[in-house]
Design a protein that fits this description.
By secondary structure, the chain is α/β, with parallel strands linked by helices. It is 42% helix and 18% strand. The protein has two domains: 154 residues, P-loop containing nucleotide triphosphate hydrolases (Rossmann fold, 3-Layer(aba) Sandwich), CATH 3.40.50.300; 129 residues, no CATH class. It has ten helices and nine strands. The protein is elongated, with a radius of gyration of 22 Å. It comes from Dorea hominis.
C-alpha cells in the first residue's frame, strides 16, 4: 500500500499533480475533510484491498479543520500507518503572476485582501507540513511535462529522489539580470558572434554559432571551472535544504554566447541528473528579432 498526501501552496500545481497521479494508477481524492483522513488511511491498510495506491489532496481550503491536520498526522504515526507527503512549492512572484493570469482569488485573501497577504499567511499555516514533507517540488520554473517526469520518477519508477531542481538560464544583460537567479555568470569576455555577418541572425542553438564560440580556448576553460564549482555546490545546497537553483549565464543580448554556454552546462549537468532535476531556458533568445520588428 502506498498512501501519498499531496499538499502545498495554492497555485503551485496540486490539482495538476493529482490528475497526473491518477493517470499513473493512483486512486485520488481531493480536499477530504481532515477528520476523515485516519478512516481513509485505515481503509487502505486493510489486507486484500484492491486499492493499493492512493493520493489525497489536502490544502488550506479545508478551513478550520485544517488546524487539526498536525494532530491527525501524529495519530497516523502512532497507529503505525504509513504515508508520504508531497509538498508543492513556488515563489511568491510566480504565484502572484498565476493568480493574476487566471483572475482567481487566493483562498485566504478573498476579494478584499491582496494576494501577497494571503500567500504569506498560507506559508505560515503550511510551515509544519513543509518541514514534514518527504518530497518537496518547487514548480516555479517547471513545465507541465517536467512535473510529470519528476512525479513519474518518484511514484512509478521509485527512484531515489533529491529535492534540488536546477534551471540553467541564458539571458541578455541589456534586458536585465533575472530577479530569481541564485548564481549569475557573465560571458561577455568571449568573442561576440554578433559581429560576424553570417552568424548575426543565428543563435547559440545553431551549430555554426556554437562552433564559433566553443573554438575559443577560454570557453572550454570557463565551462570546466564553472562545472567544477557547480558540482561542488550541489551536494552542499541539497544538505542545506535548498530546492531550487537558478544559474544565470548572460551575454549582451542573450542570443549567442550565453545560449551556447548555457546549453553546454546543461548537457554536462544532465549526465548526473539522477541526483537532481535539471532544465534549460533561454529567456531572451528571441527578443532582438522582436525589437527590430517593431
Amino acid at each position: 500500500m502506498r498512501f501519498v498526501i499531496v499538499t502545498g501552496m495554492s497555485g503551485a500545481g496540486k490539482s495538476t499533480a493529482l490528475k497526473m497521479l491518477e493517470d499513473m494508477g493512483y486512486f485520488c481524492a481531493d480536499n477530504l475533510p481532515v477528520p476523515l483522513i485516519p478512516k481513509f488511511a485505515e481503509l487502505l491498510s486493510v489486507p486484500g484491498t484492491e486499492m493499493n495506491k492512493a493520493a489525497l489532496g489536502v490544502d488550506i481550503r479545508s478551513g478550520q479543520s485544517f488546524k487539526e491536520l498536525e494532530r491527525v498526522l501524529s495519530e497516523l504515526d502512532e497507529a503505525g500507518l504509513t504515508y508520504e507527503i508531497l509538498f508543492l512549492e513556488s515563489s511568491d512572484d510566480v504565484l502572484i503572476k498565476r493568480y493574476k493570469e487566471t483572475r482567481r482569488f487566493h483562498p485566504l485573501s478573498g476579494s478584499s485582501q491582496r494576494v501577497d497577504k494571503g500567500i504569506a499567511e498560507e506559508r505560515e499555516k503550511l510551515s509544519f507540513l513543509k518541514k514534514k514533507a518527504n518530497y518537496l517540488l518547487d514548480t516555479s520554473h517547471m513545465l507541465t511535462r517536467e512535473l510529470k517526469g519528476e512525479l513519474n520518477k518518484i511514484f512509478v519508477e521509485n527512484k531515489e529522489y533529491k529535492n534540488l531542481y536546477i534551471t540553467v538560464l541564458s539571458f541578455g544583460f541589456k534586458y536585465g539580470i533575472p530577479s530569481d537567479a541564485d548564481l549569475v555568470f557573465d560571458v561577455r569576455f568571449l568573442p561576440n558572434p554578433y559581429y560576424i555577418e553570417e552568424l548575426r541572425s543565428k543563435s547559440g542553438n545553431d551549430k555554426e554559432v556554437r562552433d564559433y564560440v566553443m573554438e575559443n580556448e577560454k570557453s572550454w576553460e570557463f565551462l570546466e571551472k564553472l562545472t567544477d564549482m557547480i558540482e561542488f555546490l550541489i551536494p552542499n545546497y541539497v544538505a542545506e535544504g535548498k530546492t531550487q537553483l537558478v544559474i544565470g549565464i548572460g551575454c549582451t543580448g542573450g542570443k549567442h554566447r550565453s545560449v551556447t554556454l548555457a546549453n553546454a552546462l546543461y548537457e554536462t549537468l544532465q549526465e548526473n541528473e539522477e541526483n537532481y532535476g535539471v532544465r534549460i531556458e533561454h529567456r531572451d533568445i528571441e527578443k532582438d528579432a522582436k525589437t527590430k520588428a517593431r
